[in-house]
Amino acid sequence: MVLQTLRKGASGWIAKIFLVVLTLSFVVWGIADVFRGFGTTTVASVGSTDISADAFRRQYLDQLQQLSRRAGRAVTPEQARAFGLDRQILNQMIADATLDEKAARLGLAVSDAQVAREIADNPAFRPPGATAFDPAYFQQLLRSNSITEQRFVDSEKKRAVRDQVLQSFGAGVAVPQVLLDAVNRYEGETRAASYILVTAAVAGPLPAPTEEQLRAYFDAHKITFRAPEFRKIAVLALTPAALAAGEAVSDADARSFYDRNHARFGTPEQRVVKQIVFTDAAEAKAAFEKIKAGTPFEEVATARGLSAKDTDLGLVTKAGILDPKIADAAFALAEGAVSEPVEGRFGTALVEVTKIVPGMQQPFEAVKPMIVADLQLDKARRALLDKHDAVEDERASGATLAETAQKLGLTLQVFDAVDRSGRDPEGNMVAVPGGADVIGGAFATQPGVETDTVQLPQNGGFVWYETAGITPARERTFEEAKAAVTVRWTEAETEKAIEAKAKELFDKAQAGTPLAEVAGAADRPIQVAEPLRRGRAEGPFSTESVAAVFDVKEGGFGITAAASEPDKVVFQVTKVTVPESAPEATQVAAELSRQLENDLLMQYLDAIQKEIGVKVNDRVYAQAVGAGTAN
């Protein structure tokens, strides 16, 4: 991630190159006869430039590790290939080699001094808050990304040369005003539509299905009622929570924790405190004598030109008073009392307490269960890794999970039947520790085969599991599936009834009956949606159904699916509002310009590749990514 940030800052055209590389995927992999066997160590060749299998595999593994770090778990090569990571990396390397080849033919070069200046000027190589390049920080960043300085400098020199090739195309492409106007009209157009929402209530009640109808539906849709494959999974979950119950906590430990954390189990005493600060101790003494003789505290403060805001500290705890001596004096007074002069941090002060709110402390016995549970969990976290090692030792000795759990005093959970989606035969979700990782792994292995340990996120523990049995998928009988068949038949017939009713209302409107009359005859209110905009859901209109509204001319009628299926919407477009022509400088113009630049760059790279030739060795490529054949 850091290296990506560094590279982003290294050149203003890097983002454009990246976009071109992604787009180039459709170009490189679409070239006819691009896969041909040649050599034994070359994955691809671009003109006279070869991409070695070692270089490709090194970059592939680097990206695989980064992907694993971002995912928070190991990503297998098979998963990476499913994501298309291998092709993306090869596409990028081919694009880089294409530009390198073209730059070499044009005789372009960048000096070491220029690259050094660019690195020194790059803010990414400065520590946070620094304004100058820091060589030590630069080296730290390189080490954290496992790259040498020479390798990085060479990479940036190549990027700078490629930048020179690309700078002659695409920058500052002017967007024609006619295109801006067209896009603005398309994006800014709004519509108003009157509509009738057709629901199951409008369609009317369905007759109860007959046995023959249900059997016919079952026979026509047998595959949807097929019982899926189930797996019996044995799971040993080692988590702090699972270990906590076995940890002993003495009364003395619990009492000690309670005494050390009094504030956690109650609220401290609070007091309304006022103070007058004097720079002269003698003045403070004289003021105290006046208050002692009966002069109100507020009157003494007013005589010194102080307002209530200047003297009132508010309702505070002892810890909330910054000056410890003032705090001690304030919390030693009785309510309504005034202290003698106190030598505080900011002068000599008189302190008055006008209100005391007593603190509240929960007794030890009331909070003891919570304290014991917290201490057990804390001990369990510390013991987790030792217990993990003990489980691994047992597994290494050949013990089953059941034997391991019994020997170490752990709980083995057995889930008799779980399908791929994590449900039991009744369709209920099963809370399998480790979730999809464990279920997916159980379906990928046969009984008796050892599986990988699943590490739970945020040090939540570890899960070991075994596939203990397999119940193959099978056809259910009609009697087994009858309840589900009834539900599905009802849903299908309801959908048909709604669709038929909507078509009936639509046909009436199309024939000339005003939509309001059509709605009234169906005992449904006519409603209005406005303004409707492309790509934005509104009321019963989903984004897809809004698109249907924009396919109908003003005054025309339409029928579309509602946001809540299987409801339908019968509508009439009552108003079309088209905006004026687009202003000269808009966000739309900037986006269009960027897209035109990318299109030009893609075409340019495509032309270069056709000129110099691109070939990919499918056999070496497949070996490099660990596949039997090329993707």
From TrEMBL:
Gene3D superfamilies: 3.10.50.40, Porin chaperone SurA, peptide-binding domain (1.10.4030.10). InterPro entries: PPIase_dom_sf (IPR046357), PPIase_PpiC (IPR000297), PpiD_chaperone (IPR052029), Trigger_fact/SurA_dom_sf (IPR027304). It is a single-pass type II membrane protein. The keyword Cell membrane applies. It is found in: Cell inner membrane. Belongs to the PpiD chaperone family. This is Parvulin-like PPIase. It comes from Xanthobacter dioxanivorans.
